[in-house]
Specification:
about 100 residues; mainly alpha; globular
């Protein structure tokens, strides 16, 4: 699995995952890999003069949230130790 700053994707916050996608370090494996429509949103977000920026940003945020939650859920089901700062983003997933 691709790492960012020496961490696995399930150890990243949503913001770190978003940055890894923009930097080309992560490719949405749980949502379909490099054929995922997020590539258009990355381009639009990097070029904010595009008229559909708000729509692309909302879609981008949803895609990142879905992917991140899936990756964290898989790590949890595999018994991996998820950092507290990531757990804080999913209080329902990590209820005691």
């Amino acid at each position: 699995m691709v790492t960012n700053k020496g961490k696995e994707p399930w150890q990243w916050t949503r913001g770190e995952m978003a940055q890894a996608v923009i930097d080309g370090l992560y490719d949405f494996p749980t949502l379909g890999g490099d054929h995922h429509p997020a590539s258009k949103e990355v381009w639009t977000i990097q070029n904010p003069s595009i008229m559909n920026y708000a729509i692309a940003k909302a879609h981008w945020d949803r895609i990142i949230a879905q992917e991140h939650e899936a990756v964290v859920g898989i790590a949890l089901s595999e018994g991996k130790s998820v950092p507290q700062r990531v757990k804080d983003q999913y209080p329902d997933m990590f209820k005691a």
